[in-house]
Specification:
heterodimer; A: 135 residues; mainly beta; OB fold (Dihydrolipoamide Acetyltransferase, E2P); B: 166 residues; 5-stranded antiparallel beta sheet; 3-stranded antiparallel beta sheet; 11 strands
Chain lengths: 135, 166
Amino acid sequence: MTNIDHWSSSIDLDYRYTAGVAGETFLRKIAKGRIMASRCSYCRLTYLPPRLYCEKCLRKIDTWVQVRGKGELYSYTMTGRGKKKSLYGLVKFAGIEGGLVGRIVGSDLADLKFGMPVRVDLKNSEKGLLVYLHV
Amino acid sequence: MVYSGIGISPQDVANSRYLTVPYSANLRYRWSTGAAVGRFLAELKNGKIVGRKCDKCKRVLVPPRMFCERDFIQTSKWVYVQDAGIVDTYSISYIAADASRLEKPLIVAVIRLDGTGEAGILHILGGIEPKDVMIGMRVKAVWKPKRRRVGAITDIRYFAPAGDAK
């Protein structure tokens, strides 16, 4: 009798990610160029990306506010190999929890500073939504 | 406070009612069985269940291990055990291995084979309705025909009620 020394198989995972109730609204609005945040009317906390439930009081949120104006560059990083490098940044807005991640265009690494004002530019493409950050 | 969720039907997906991102991953693997399980699987192909005995605690380990994790010594010999035993514990699962919903549930059970003492193997029960399953009931292996066995735990199709006969 010969031992069976190994077992070969595979695990197939097929799934569909949904954005959730708040995420669905966020994505549909952002496709139209509007950045929407959700606000808890009890805690006065505003969430971006929006949440359906307040993380502080756990109440359901049904108030939406549009995020307007410039944000500030909270953090940034450079990714890529060789000559093909990209800059990405996290933008925060005054009085809002969270922020948006996007690709920084029209600037070099040396130009970037924490806290500098950032203009967000949303573009729909075949690849999906692109978030461009201009500093 | 209870907030109910929103169900999404296959029609909703087909009609693109909600935004979704599909993703597929195929995770291929090759698992090295080792000396003990390697022989265990080969024996299953022959319709036999083999374990390893620890001389100190006298347990027969099924599936076999070359080492007794209780006594920190090597197990000493191969011992054939019966393909029948009792249901130690069980669970009625309406979810298949790929997480799809099942109309007819699987009955997953830990079966303590005769001659093993406290050890139990995980398998499924067949030939019985979920409501009739009881802890302690006697069950016996229902094997695949010999030519269809490949040396896998699924060479046993399921365990079925064995009445009171031992």
